[in-house]
What we know:
By secondary structure, this protein is α+β, with helices and mostly antiparallel strands.
Amino acid sequence: MKTKRSLIAGLIWFSLLGYGQVQAQALDLETCLKMADTANINNRNAMLDIRYNQEQRGSYLAARLPQLNFTADYKFNAKIPGQVVPAAFFGGQPGTYSTVQFGVPFVLGNTLQLTQVVFNSQVNYGLAALKINNDIASIQKEMTQQDIRYQVANAFFTLQGINKQIDFIDSNVVNTQKLLRNMEAMVREGLMIQTEADKIKINELSLINTRTSLEATKEQLESLLKILIGMPQDQAIMLEGDKLVEKTILNDQATQNFYALQLIDAQKRMNQEEKKGIQMGYLPNLSFYAAYNYNINIKPADNYRKGIDGAFLGLRLDWTLFDGLDKYHKAKMNLINAEKLTNQYELANEQLQMAAENNKRQIQVKAGSLSITKQQLKLAEDVYHNAALKFEKGLISSNDLIMAENGMEQAQTNVVSAYIQLRQAELEFLKTIGNIK
Length: 437
C-alpha cells in the first residue's frame, strides 16, 4: 500500500515540474511544440513586443521630419493696458508724465510655423539604441519560446509516463482478476479458505484505486498541456505513444544558443551606445524654422479694422555650456554599469558551461538508471509469474504471492520514474543550450 501511495506522489511531483467532447486528436511532441509556438499567449506577447519596438523606431524617426504647426490667438482686451511716458515726448511740460494706451480691443492672431531639425546630438544615439532594443526583444522572445517548449515537452513526457503506468496497472488487474477467479473456484470446492482470496481481492482494489488517482492526475496534466499549446479545454487530446523509446531526444547538440549570454551582450552594446550618447550631449543642437503670421486689429467704436502680416526665417542654436556636471556623473555611472555587465557575462558563461556539462553527465546517469530498472522489471515479472504458478500449485502462501506482486509493481514504478527523469535531464540540457525544437 505504501508503495502504491509513493507511486502516485512521485508521478504527481514529476507532473508539477513543468507546470460534450469532440473526436480525440493524436499529437506527437513536434506537433505540440509547433502549436505552442503560434498559439501560446506568452509567445504571442513576445512577438507583439518585437512589433512594438519596430513601431517605436518609426515614431522616433518621425521626429527627424519637418514639423508644421498652426497657432491661433483670438484676444479681447476688456481694458486696454497703458504705458507711462514722459509728457515732453508729446510736447508737454518736462518733468511730467502721461499715460498712453496702445492697441485695440480685438486682436486676432494667426501663426503658421515650420520647424526642421538640422542637427541633434541624440538622434543617432536614439536610433542605435532602438535597434539594440529590438535585438533584446528578439532574444527575449527566443528565451520565452524555449521556456514554453520546455513546459510543453515536460508535460508531454510526464503524460507518457502516466499512460505507461496505467497500462502496467491494467495488465496487473487482468492478471489479478484471473487469479481471483481460480481462487474463488478453489474456495467453493473447499480447497482454499476465503481469507486467502480476500488478500488478493484487497490487492485488486488497491490497483483500481491507484488507477483512479492516476487518471485524475492525467486529466489535470492534459488541461495544462492544452493551455500551453492553445487547444480548447472541451477538445479531447490524445498523444502518440512514446513507448519508453530507447532513442534520445538530443537530435542536435552542436547548435548552442546561450540566450542569456546573448542578452547580456546586447546590454553591453546598449551600454556603449549610452556612452556615445553622453559624449554627444556636449555638442549643440541646430534647428531651422520659418513662420508666417497675420494679425487682425479691430476697434468697433471707430469701425476700424487693420490686418498686419509678417514672416521670418531663422536658425536656432541650443548649446548647454555647463550642466552642473550632470553628464560627468552619468559617464561615471555608465562606466560602472559596463564593468558590472562584463562581470555578469563572465559569471553567466561559467554557469551555463557548468550546467551544460552537469546535465550531460546526468543524462548518462539517468540513461544507465533506465536500463537497469528495465532489467529489474524483467526479473521482477519472472519472479511474479513463477510465484503465481507456485501459488496455484499450493507451494507458496498468498503472502509470498503478494510480496512478489508488490515487487513487480515497484519495478514498474521505477521504470516509469527513470524514464521521466531521463527525459527531464535531456530537456534541462537542451534548455541550457537553447535548443529545444
